[in-house]
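Deliverable D5.2: sample structural annotation.
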Amino acid sequence: MQSDPSSAVPPIPEAEIFAEHEGGKLSVALARPLETTRDLSIAYTPGVAQVSRAIAADPAVAASHTWASRLVAVVSDGTAVLGLGDIGAAASLPVMEGKSALFQRFGGLNSIPIVLDTTDVDEIVETLVRIAPSFGAVNLEDVAAPRCFELEARLIEALDMPVMHDDQHGTAVVALAALLGASRVVGKELAGLRVVISGAGAAGIAVAKMLLDAGIEDIVLLDSRGVLLPGRAGVDGVKAELAARSNPRGVSGGTAEALAGADVFIGVSSSTVPEAHLAGMAEDAIVFALSNPDPEVRPEVAARHAAVVATGRSDFPNQINNVLAFPGIFRGALDAGAKRITSAMKLAAAQAIAALVGDELAADRIVPSPLDPRVADAVAAAVARAATEPAATGPAAEPEPEPEPEPDSAPAALAGA
């Protein structure tokens, strides 16, 4: 039942990686020909003025006669990029370009990267509100905790369009989808799993919440100081909320104590996990080492102790990467005209991803390949159906209390992008 990490993609030469990024990964393509004087008169002056007058008279016309309503802005301040941390706006741009490329390739959605040279939440919100007529949805990316929680909540309130911090919610969706498959492989009921999540930043908090929503009760969440427990130093805000909702056995200590007898390890932090700690897990354990670019434990090491092993990287089997989720989630939300991305929509996305594996389910195939052309269509359809619930068009929830900062390097961000 062991997965086989030996089938990984061979290392790619650095020169080839840099060559593929030279000049960037994006360009603007024409949707219609622009070859003749007549074409020019329609696309530009004088014809374009008629469309502009129509939009001025009825702003709703912009949704059907510009690209804005189907354009996703990928926004970052460069403070939590991959596992590299706070590397700044300019250094984050290759990743944001990669994310925009994936929106087009897998979701059929136009997308533009917007990197902002500020970490001030007020400034970011003001900037995006001012340029909001240019796009129809916002994918927040690689924004460090705890500011990411406030930023997402405020943008949901300020913008009349879908907004999602993918490092949080995309990660949670794919983690649940993978766990649905892995639990079937090892023959364990989802609700009965003992789950350990390493990392209480943006991704860890979102994964914990989604697994709780899916019916898993025994979740132990660790931050850099150890297991979250009510009253422990540094456990306040969202961390305190999760400490009260999880860890029913009252586990305390660090990774070794948390993993003793655990069925599942989910890593979404930059920390490493000693092999000896994995050895204490239950029989037929599941290990998701999702930190990018460096997993918490190498898959070949994890495979000595776990029946199912997955990472967030493209060059190992069982890639649990947000590319399985975010293109379809945004497309489904836009298709349905939703103004919010709700919990029901995210749960529907996870179930749709898991269902696609079908009879091919195996220890080294717990989720479909990111290159599977069915994924975005299935996710978009499921999300669009779930978007009919009132919460998808109603007011946003109150902003959540902010947790303490925690290193976070979720698979959200595009391994190898």
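Annotation notes: The first strand starts at residue 71 and ends at 76. Strands lie at 71-76, 110-115, 137-140, 163-165, 194-198, 218-223, 226-227, 264-267, 285-289, 306-311.
The annotation will be released with the project's public dataset once the embargo ends.
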